[in-house]
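User: I'm putting together notes for a lab meeting next week and I want to include a structural view of one of the chains we've been expressing. I don't have a solved structure, so I'd like a prediction I can at least talk through. The sequence is below, exactly as it appears in our construct file.
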Amino acid sequence: MTDKMDNLDKKILKSMFSGEGVGAKMTELANELSVSRSTINLRVGKLQSKGIVTGYKPEIDWEKLGYDLITYIGLVCPDEAVGGLIQALKKEESIYEIREITTGTFDLLIKCRFRGYSEMKKLHKSIMGVEGVRDADIWLLGPSYTEE
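Assistant: Thanks for the context. Below is the predicted structure for the 148-residue chain, given as structure tokens.
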């Protein structure tokens, strides 16, 4: 059973999620929360040892790398085709997240990034050529609005 997190742990996680409190920014986080750097180090260490904080990833501006299109693709396929389809999709450079869906119309949801429309169209054609795929819907994403 995991210990309940107190208010300070919650504030630390919220700040870390927004990009603060990693590496050299630990001092900034300590100042922001009005606690010592050693307290922040101790708390983050405990969150890591409990498996709550499992790693640190860079935030990447994919548009600056030329990936202007972010899409989700919903796939309809029979259960027996899912395993093979996931293995095939993992080989695609433009796909960076694959999820099985447990409710609704689709069986798989994949998140992709493309440099242009022609790359997206090529992947769609490739997916539709995989045995067992019955349908694929593509959603192009616009701006993201998140609460800060």
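A couple of points you could mention at the meeting. The first strand starts at residue 69 and ends at 76. The domain at 62-140 is CATH 3.30.70.920 (Alpha-Beta Plaits).

User: Perfect, that's what I needed.
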